[in-house]
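job 3f2a | input accepted
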Amino acid sequence: MTWTILLATHAFAASVALPLGAWQLFFSTKGDSRHRVAGRVWVVLMLYVALTSFWIKELRPGEFSLIHLLSVVTIVTLSLGIWSAWRGAIESHRGNMIGSWCGLLGAFIGAVAVPARHIPTFVVTEPVDAAAAAVLVVLTSAAIVAASGSRLGVRTAG
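job 3f2a | predicted structure (158 res):
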């Protein structure tokens, strides 16, 4: 996997995980089949983002930075959240998943707040491509939510 593909897939997975996680936290019916399916997709996206971050070392060229500590914490909290759900410890599951999503939100803010980082540069130098990428992220997130209910045979209210 080349550097550009790694960075692009990392950013795309994180960008889809952010609204999908928000939907899970604020709008889904907790515990139903749609929540579980979308949650599994979210966990896979989050694990991909956390794992690929270890090959991205632009903050401190050639070295790990504090952001990599967030990746380790994310892997641990996701694992604990899954384990808690399997055990039926819903409060622990909720806390770990909320913490993971908040970490993602913080990393996103950090990625867009620093003008020299790739995302702000991309938005300024390629606004049409950035808008297209944003639309793709929104459509992908919406498709995951829709597919978690309809295409997978899950009954939804309404």
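job 3f2a | Confidence is low (pLDDT under 50) at residues 151-158.
job 3f2a | closed
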